[in-house]
């Protein structure tokens, strides 16, 4: 060491970079944070921009839905299911209605079946639009969000015409549906689909194949096939990891028979290709990363449009009525039943244990968002702070469903 | 002007500073009014352009059909908000930060020529001055991030420090090309060197300046913290970054700084690359004859036309930046940094080298037509300098 005359080297105690003390920073992300999709709270342990650990804290939206289910009759419970995944109320209604129907051994008429497919797939489109739009928002792109909500608004208008509600529908009930479609509704729905299909390409341009978007999502938060299965991830999160599994095709026969004469493809990457029409997979993307999870939803939207079109045709041709709701205080046969349905966020399962009364003895809801969220600490380990919203957004959770 | 005022008031030499101060104050007021108008228009344009891009209308209520008075309504709302300083904030620095962020940007306009000779303070290192002073803006933001006493703000401030300091290097490098071509740092002379048709603009001078111009655009967007490089205030990651804890008037001062910086970098870019106050077609020369010709009224009209040209180009630049913001997602911090050091900086350095060689090898331009600037680079500078020095 060069000694400067007149200066004692001991005066400079910090001599090298490694001796400078650094600290880990504990950051509280949420529950009031713009991109945790509701009231999720994630505690981040960071080293500068690097996330060492991310621990999700949940429960801010817990409303005792399961316990309430043990105090009311199945038909009275329908509005509570709306409030679980409030972005896909119709799918929640359907899951519960089918579970009760399975317990009762009830099958709805053909017309009701097609109407259910129609409504549920329309709601799937709406839910995926929110997912895609808010995902753009998470990555700092505001405009696709507005485009998505513009289209979702049109779906909500259709729902409003059907049941009077825009968010909490309670439209699908046990034994059928609340009401039949108003006159001229199917034409409006077809008009919507016709103008909606080109919008999907716009969204692909703005998001899926956008260079910055690909750079932000490809290779980020890679969820391996095994990990996805181990954590019980379902829905687009599971399919984003390349697992060819969709309850509409592979589920309980009581559920799959709803789709028995429908033609659709499961949105999953097979040999590096998604069901057409869809843009090619960018070379940077790794199976199971944020890009794939996002893209699965975009592909599912196309498939849902196909399903809605088929359902419209089948509904037009179907004879009969849309079924009768069961009595409000109908006695349930004793027994235990569990049914999972393919909801936009994943597999939503309802379980009923009945002792033969009108009110179930035990109600249980298996939430897809809950299981999908549980994988967050695994995905966030070692990513950057900016990747946390990208990963949370790609899991597409709804806190109403996580907490129930 | 100060001299003239001093003579008119018949001030004795020891009182001459009064005249200088008066003139300086007058210029400051005019500039402040100008900057504020630009900021108000920019916020209005931002909302309107964003609205149109997003299939909305944007403001339509306040002040007629197009919502002209929306900036005023916004400002009024912000002024009346509660002045909030977080309990664990450093109150003095917290108060100081917004002004520290706005003042340098305002200082930039002092040296920015709006038209031939329309500049508050004409000096021969204007380009250097602007680049240096623009860089000071970052202090306000770092300070705001640090003083807020919030972790999100701190992260935002840290990002800002890294990003802006990095992007200043390629920005300055690309700004060096016009300086090299014109042979001066005097912005008036640089603008003057691009007189004539639009192919005389430095952006079309040679392929290297064209590349440098786009590097300048990227670095200008990044240097002013505009989306897609708004990492310091990335709302989806850092809540609101460095201004998370700011509200009301102080928050609006940060925003004024941002919009004024937008106008400033656009103005600088226009002077350096896009011909400054010279229109694409030399209409002014046809109408009013060569510059510094006859009567002061003709001269004034010619300058006014130049200012209109300049402002139109600036508006195009600002609208371009706004539409970028509403189209693109935000890159990650490491991607932003690697883009700066791996692409922008080497490219800017190469462009600088290339432009230098170009001037050396092809002083008459590619077509050998005797490029109006390159062949007489030194000469043209001499002429301009002479012209400026002679009243």
Description:
The complex is a heterodimer of chains A (404) and B (391). In chain A, α12 (290-317) runs parallel beside α15 (387-395). Chain A contains 16 helices and 8 strands. Chain A has helices at 65-69, 74-82, 89-104, 110-138, 143-163, 185-208, 211-217, 225-230, 236-240, 247-250, 253-256, 290-317, 368-373, 376-380, 387-395, 399-403, and strands at 25-29, 41-47, 50-57, 172-173, 176-177, 335-343, 346-354, 362-366. The model of chain A has no long low-confidence stretch (mean pLDDT 85). With 404 residues, chain A is α+β, with helices and mostly antiparallel strands. Chain A is globular and about 75 Å long. Chain A has one domain (65-403): Cytochrome-c3 Hydrogenase, chain B. In chain A, the strands form 3 sheets. A 3-stranded antiparallel beta sheet of chain A has the order 1-2-3. A 3-stranded antiparallel beta sheet of chain A has the order 6-7-8. Chain B is mainly α and 391 residues long. Chain B has 14 helices and no strands. In chain B, α4 runs antiparallel to α5, α9 (207-223) packs antiparallel against α10 and α9 packs antiparallel against α13. In chain B, 47% of the residues are buried. The A-B interface holds A 25, 27, 33-35, 48-49, 136-143, 146-147, 150, 206-207, 210, 212-213, 215-216, 384-389 and B 50, 53-56, 151-152, 155, 158-159, 227-228, 230-231, 234-239, 326-335.
- Give the proportion of residues in helices of chain A: 40-55%
**What is the count of β-strands of chain B?**
0
What class do helices, strands and sheet pairing of chain A give?
A: alpha+beta
- Helix- and strand-based class of chain B? mainly alpha
């Amino acid at each position: 060491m060069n000694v400067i005359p007149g200066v004692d080297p001991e005066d400079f105690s910090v001599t090298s970079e490694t001796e400078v003390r650094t600290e880990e920073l504990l950051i509280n992300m949420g529950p009031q944070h713009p991109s945790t999709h509701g009231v999720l709270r994630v505690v981040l342990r960071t080293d500068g921009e690097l996330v060492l650990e991310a621990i999700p804290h949940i429960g801010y939206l817990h409303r005792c839905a399961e316990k309430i289910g043990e105090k009311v009759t199945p038909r009275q419970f329908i509005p509570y299911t709306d409030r679980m995944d409030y972005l896909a109320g119709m799918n929640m209604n359907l899951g519960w209605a089918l579970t009760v129907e399975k317990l009762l051994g009830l099958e709805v008429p053909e017309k009701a079946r097609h109407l259910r497919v129609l409504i549920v797939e329309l709601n799937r489109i709406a839910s995926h639009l929110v997912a895609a739009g808010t995902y753009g928002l998470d990555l700092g792109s505001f405009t696709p969000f507005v485009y998505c909500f513009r289209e979702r608004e049109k779906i909500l208008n259709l729902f409003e015409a059907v049941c009077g509600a825009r968010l909490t529908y309670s439209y699908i009930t046990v034994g059928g549906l609340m009401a039949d479609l108003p006159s001229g509704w199917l034409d409006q729905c077809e008009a919507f689909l016709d103008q909606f299909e080109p919008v999907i390409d716009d969204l692909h341009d703005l998001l899926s194949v956008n260079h910055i978007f690909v750079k932000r999502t490809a290779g980020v938060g890679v969820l391996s096939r095994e990990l996805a299965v181990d954590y019980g991830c379902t829905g687009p999160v599971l399919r984003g990891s390349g697992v060819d599994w969709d309850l509409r095709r592979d589920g309980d026969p009581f559920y799959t028979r709803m789709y028995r004469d429908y033609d659709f493809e499961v949105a999953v990457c097979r040999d590096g290709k998604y069901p057409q029409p869809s843009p090619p997979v960018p070379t940077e993307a790794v199976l199971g990363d944020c890009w794939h999870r996002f893209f699965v939803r975009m592909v599912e939207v196309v498939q849902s449009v196909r399903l809605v079109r088929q359902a419209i045709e089948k509904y037009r041709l179907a004879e009969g009525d849309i079924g009768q709701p069961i009595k409000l205080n109908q006695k349930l046969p004793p027994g235990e039943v569990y049914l999972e349905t393919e909801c936009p966020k994943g597999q939503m399962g309802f379980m009923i244990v009945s002792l033969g009364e009108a009110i179930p003895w035990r109600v249980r809801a298996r939430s897809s968002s809950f299981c999908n969220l549980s994988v967050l600490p695994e995905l966030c380990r070692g990513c950057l702070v900016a990747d946390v919203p990208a990963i949370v957004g790609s899991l597409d959770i709804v806190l109403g469903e996580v907490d129930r | 002007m100060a001299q003239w005022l001093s003579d008119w008031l018949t001030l004795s030499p020891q009182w001459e500073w009064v005249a200088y101060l008066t003139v300086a104050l007058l210029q400051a007021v005019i500039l402040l009014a100008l900057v504020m108008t630009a900021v108000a228009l920019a916020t209005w344009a931002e909302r309107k352009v964003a609205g149109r891009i997003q299939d909305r209308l944007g403001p339509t209520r306040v002040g007629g059909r197009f919502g002209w008075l929306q900036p005023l309504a916004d400002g009024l709302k912000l002024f009346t908000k509660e002045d909030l300083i977080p309990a664990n904030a450093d109150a003095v620095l917290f108060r100081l930060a917004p002004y520290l962020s706005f003042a340098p940007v305002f200082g930039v306009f002092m040296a920015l020529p709006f038209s031939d000779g329309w500049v508050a303070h004409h000096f021969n290192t204007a380009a250097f001055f602007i680049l240096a002073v623009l860089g000071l803006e970052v202090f306000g933001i770092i300070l705001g991030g640090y003083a807020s006493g919030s972790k999100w703000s701190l992260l935002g401030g840290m990002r800002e420090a890294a990003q802006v300091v990095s992007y200043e290097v390629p920005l300055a490098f690309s700004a060096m090309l016009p300086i090299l071509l014109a042979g001066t740092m005097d912005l008036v002379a640089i603008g003057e060197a691009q007189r004539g048709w639009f192919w005389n603009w430095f952006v079309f001078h040679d392929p290297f300046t064209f590349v440098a111009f786009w590097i300048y655009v990227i670095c200008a967007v990044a240097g002013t913290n505009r989306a897609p490089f708004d990492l310091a205030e990335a709302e989806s990651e850092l809540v609101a970054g460095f201004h998370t804890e700011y509200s009301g008037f102080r928050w609006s001062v940060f925003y004024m700084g941002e919009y004024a910086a937008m106008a400033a970098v656009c103005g600088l870019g226009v002077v350096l690359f896009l011909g400054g106050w010279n229109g694409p077609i030399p209409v002014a020369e046809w109408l009013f004859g060569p510059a510094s010709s006859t009567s002061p009224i003709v001269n004034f009209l010619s300058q006014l036309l130049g200012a209109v040209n300049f402002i139109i180009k600036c508006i195009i630049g600002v609208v371009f930046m706004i539409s970028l913001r509403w189209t693109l997602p935000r890159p990650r911090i490491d991607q932003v940094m690697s883009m700066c050091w791996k692409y922008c900086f080497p490219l800017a350095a190469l462009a600088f080298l290339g432009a230098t060689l170009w001037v050396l090898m092809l002083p008459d331009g590619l077509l050998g037509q005797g490029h109006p600037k390159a062949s007489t680079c030194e000469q043209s500078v001499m002429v301009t300098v002479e012209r400026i020095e002679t009243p």
